[in-house]
Amino acid sequence: EKGGYEHFMLKEMHEQPKAVKDTLTPRIKNGDVVIEELGMTDEEIRAIRKIFIVACGSAYHTGVTSKYIFEKLARIPVEVDLASEFRYRDPILPENTLVVIVSQSGETADTLAALRLAKEKGVRTLGIVNVVGSSIAREADNVMYTWAGPEIAVATTKAYSTQLIAQYLLAMKFAKVRGTVSQNDFDAMIQSLERLPEQISLLLSHKENVQRFANRYLAAEHVFFIGRGIDYAISMEGSLKLKEISYIHSEAYAAGELKHGTISLIEDGRLVVAVLTQPELYKKTISNIQEVKTRGAFVMAVTTVGNTEVEKVADYVVYLPETNPIFANSLAIIPLQLFGYYVSIGRGLDVDKPRNLAKSVTVE
Ligand code: F6R
């Protein structure tokens, strides 16, 4: 059942190229993004004034990423909410709001309650769901399925990757219809998307390097992940992956926030993972790396090939293949998933079933 892999998580990480492809390919037709199940006319898409993305955990992290992408490409304001917060804060949902609910299981109690609240308020809802026929899939006005297939490991990997793809496609569709993206840029994005599966495979094939590095940090007590913009969203997911399966305390910080408190926790030998995939922010994050290095941190950087400046400041660098920076999460998350996985098994833990956690959280 594990297809020759030692754990479901390892198997599912390796299924990501296929899961991404299966979620992407049916929705790209003749160089265009076609999402029939969206059930919205171009006129309806143009009328949307605001988008809420509501989810829990890793699914929420995909929403944080796609906020940057939606706002950049389609120029629509996006709010991202944790479902458990959204449902109790009496959210303001004007007409022409679209509420996007993201869930692998389609059964997460808070996420389902958030969907019901949005429907009660009379706004349009769209589910991005992996489990076919689940509660969220049945109750949302429309549902866009992610085609990750069954995910068994508690820590999500392939479902996360497909949730990102679904939201990239959605943002591109909105941008195209609203005329906020040029045809040239759009065509280049399609090409970048189509290269992702192969690029993910390449990163997976370097897993032994990540393992070797992870083995040096099995006894870490605290790990900090830093980044800016989309790199901050990637940091959140990288940090969650590590902590939930390794039981090592880790936190993600917006790199610019470090000096507002967190930097006091940096001391000799502390591991800091820096994510740099957004070229316009490289310089800023590099200066944050210097700040933690000065205080004795050991820095692992995940960055895009060509950013050789990072080598001058970081201790260990993982290079990602070139892509459109808006899609960088899909690549940067791979070494971070692998890092969490190898730290967990290196510590002898039950990586597929971490303590206290359930795959589907059906109670609030
Ligand atoms: C972390 C993880 C969780 C889920 C969260 C939402 O690896 O898997 O944080 O992302 O519980 O679950 P779904 O997507 O089923 O609503």
Query: Spans with pLDDT under 50 lasting ≥5 residues?
Result: none
> Could you tell me how far the N terminus lies from the C terminus, measured between alpha carbons in angstroms?
31 Å
Order of helices and strands: HHEEHEHEHEHEHEHHHEHEEHEEH
Indicate the overall shape. globular
Strand order of the largest sheet: 4-3-5-6-7
- Hetero groups: fructose -6-phosphate
Rounded to the nearest angstrom, the radius of gyration is 20 Å
Count of discrete alpha- or pi-helical segments spanning 4 or more residues: 13
- In terms of DSSP E residues, the strand content is 15-25%
- Helical fraction: 40-55%
Structure description:
With 364 residues, the protein is of the alpha/beta class. Helix content is 44%, strand content 17%. It has helices at residues 8-14, 16-24, 42-47, 57-74, 83-86, 109-120, 135-139, 158-178, 183-204, 207-214, 230-246, 282-294, 329-346; strands at 28-29, 32-33, 50-55, 78-82, 97-103, 124-129, 142-145, 222-227, 249-254, 271-276, 298-304, 316-320. The chain has a five-stranded parallel sheet, with helices on both faces. Strands 9-8-10-11-12 form a five-stranded parallel sheet, with helices on both faces. Strand 3, helix 4 (57-74) and strand 4 (78-82) form a beta-alpha-beta unit. Helix 4 packs parallel to helix 8 and helix 11 runs parallel beside helix 13 (329-346). The longest helix is centred in the middle third of the chain and has 22 residues, at 183-204. The model has no long low-confidence stretch (mean pLDDT 97). It binds fructose -6-phosphate. Fructose -6-phosphate (F6R) is lined by residues 56-59, 103-105, 108, 111, 155-156, 240, 244, 360-361.
